[in-house]
Amino acid sequence: MAPVGTDPRAITLARGLLVALLLSFGPAVSNSFSRFAYALILPAMRSDLQWNYSQAGSINTVNALGYLFGALLTRALVARLGNRALYGWGMVLTSVAITATGFVRDFEALMAVRVLAGVGGAAVFICGGALSGNIFPKRPQLATTTIAIYFAGGGIGLMLSGVALPLLLEAQGSTSWPLAWRSMGYASLLMTVAAAWSAWGIAEPGKMPGEARWKLRPFAAELAAYAMFALGYIGFMTFVIEWMRLNGASTATVIAVWFVLGLATLLAPLVWRKPAEHWPGGRPLAAVMAVLAAGAVLPLASTQPAALLLSAALFGVAMFSAPSSVGSFIKRALPSPAWGSAIATFTVVFAAGQIAGPVAIGWLADRSGSLQIGLAASAGLLAIGAVLALVQRDLRHPQ
Question: 350: exposed, middle or buried (C-beta count within 10 Å: 0-12, 13-18, 19+)?
């Protein structure tokens, strides 16, 4: 028997979990830093650059446009280049784009680097997700654990940026927003080295079997609900910190809200695992979106710290659970050869919703003269999505 601490299986397990942890820097960079941290920096950017809400929303809209292009490009190139290469180059592109955001002030230039961040972020998120399930190819039962660790990186990134950026902006003032982007960019470049190393040590996932034909119509309600999720959640995540600041929220409150948001994201798999596995039809997605709608409407009802913290907890526990609910639904409803095509279809709809959401919410805020109307629209879209998901009938493919 091998001495304690030198068991080869234990060593292999520890190394694999470390690889999963380093790989999780991908969601931290591609989602938390590149996309969601914009909400933390937006009040300073609006103040310094004199933007209206439509311009502010456009910056996140073009990031989502880049994500859509990146998703389509990744799907086209992954069979030729592989997940590891696309993940690594996606990390490099996203990190460079985040850094470059801190060196430009021109509106068009900012839009350009945000597009590039979206392109790279899509490659990171998609290919990293594929790699995370293949860290232990001979022990597939551990895939659920490594995938959970991978997506937990998004929550870790939210907590890190939620603490560091508000403190930086409070200490240096609104004109220091470029420094916030540069700091995240430099951190992202360091994370890229570790994450790319971890990705290179993972066996390339096997090629997917030929795609089976499937009909879109039976999935219409689930697809429509997912579109409402994309429209509603990104509008809320873009402007919620701006709303808090307009209503006098302190830096300490902003830090606490973003930290709770990230922490709830980490705990979400514990909350939604059984509903996603056992509830029929669109009920898991409906429940997730109902929780999101409640979280989105709370800051409009009250801007007291307790209400804002509850909002963050509700939104965090559900935000990353909508895609996982859809994924579980697809895997129950279709044979495995059709999963890739179905997930790609839902991803395109999701990306299109993210494109429209921020600029539409910003336009509503400008037209009404109040951000309240735009945020109310976000909550309303999420509530509509919950109702649509309830309509989705159960689809079960014989196993």
Answer: buried
DSSP-derived secondary structure for 253-285: HHHHHHHHHHHHHHHHHHHHHHHHHHS-TTHHH
Over 291-333, what HEC string results? Answer: HHHHHHHHHHHCCCHHHHHHHHHHHHHHHCHHHHHHHHHHHHH
Encoding tokens for residue 28?
A: 């931290």
Domains and CATH numbers, the chain: 20-206 (1.20.1250.20), 215-399 (1.20.1250.20)
Instruction: Assign 133 to helix, strand or coil.
Output: coil
Q: What confidence tens digit (pLDDT) does each residue in 259-312 have?
A: 999 899 888 878 877 787 778 888 989 999 999 999 999 999 998 999 999 999
Q: H-helix or E-strand containing 155?
A: helix 143-172
Alpha-carbon distances of 214 from 115, 337, 349, 397, rounded to whole Å? 32, 10, 17, 11
Q: Is 114 helix (H, G, I), strand (E, B) or coil?
A: helix
> For residue 51, what are the contacts with CB-CB under 8 A and spacing of at least 6?
45, 107
Greatest CA separation for the chain: 73
Contact 20, 135 (CB under 8 A): yes
Question: Six-digit token pair at 160?
Answer: 């890190």
Cβ distance 150 to 136 under 8 Å?
no
Q: Token digits for 17?
A: 């979990």
Give the pLDDT confidence score for residue 219 in this predicted structure: 87
Q: Is 300 exposed, middle or buried (0-12, 13-18, 19+ CB in 10 A)?
A: middle
Q: Distance between CA 280 and CA 48 in Å, rounded?
A: 50
Which are the contacts of 239, defined by CB distance < 8 A and separation ≥ 6?
39, 42, 53, 56, 57, 358, 361, 362, 365, 371, 374, 375
| DSSP state at residue 139 | -
Which structure tokens are listed for 302?
Answer: 């009250």
For residue 1, name the pLDDT band (cuts at 50, 70, 90): very low
Nearest to 33 by CA among 202, 268, 195: 195
- Helix 177-200 to helix 37-49 angle (10° resolution) is 150
